[in-house]
Design brief:
Blueprint lengths: L1 H25 L16 H10 L2 H19 L2 H22 L8 H24 L8 H42 L1
Helix pairs in contact: 1-2, 1-3, 2-4, 2-6, 3-4, 4-5, 5-6
């Protein structure tokens, strides 16, 4: 039963991430002065997974989300950019999370992820363009990445508080039914 619950939980989060990613792809870019910059709504699921499951499972979730989003509405180039940003962001968020909650909040972890996501994408862009001049875009994308990361971190913090409440309610319900 535990394995089924874990698989179901991962599947639900992947589905939510894919839907958020596809919805965001349908929206016009919110930052007119920074073409290609997005809020990264699907990263909300990544942040939530960092705090609700084992690292191996959250890593699997990120890859599934990337693959499905690409298959349903992307191209090979969008996959390259998304995967490079997501992997650097994921690794960075794991590293920052290890500092502990007394040093860094969920919002700080997410902000670091937003910053690193853009660095990963710019590195791939530099390799494709065979020029490091694309890194001139880094200050603008860094600012927007941190800003988006803060927004995503605040949303994740809010949702995780609600998830914790739901988990506590579920445990109390299960305990009550076991005693009958």
């Amino acid at each position: 039963m535990a394995k089924t619950k874990k698989t179901l939980f991962i599947s639900l989060l992947v589905a939510q991430g894919v839907v958020l990613g596809l919805l965001e792809n349908m929206l016009p870019y919110p930052f007119a002065f920074a073409p290609g910059a997005k809020l990264g709504l699907a990263n909300l699921i990544t942040v939530i997974s960092l705090f609700t499951m084992r690292n191996r499972d959250s890593f699997f979730l990120v890859w599934l989300r990337l693959l499905l989003t690409t298959l349903l509405g992307g191209t090979v180039s969008t996959f390259l950019y998304s995967a490079s940003g997501a992997m650097l962001s994921y690794a960075g968020m794991l590293g920052v999370k290890k500092l502990g909650p007394q040093r860094v909040s969920i919002i700080g972890i997410s902000a670091a992820g937003g910053f690193l996501h853009n660095i990963g994408q710019l590195i791939v862009a530099a390799m494709i363009a065979q020029s490091w001049s694309v890194m001139l875009y880094l200050p603008v994308l860094s600012f927007l990445g941190v800003l988006s990361g803060i927004f995503i971190g605040m949303a994740a913090n809010y949702l995780l508080q609600r998830v914790k409440t739901l988990q506590e309610f579920q445990l109390a319900y299960e305990r009550r039914n076991l005693t009958k």
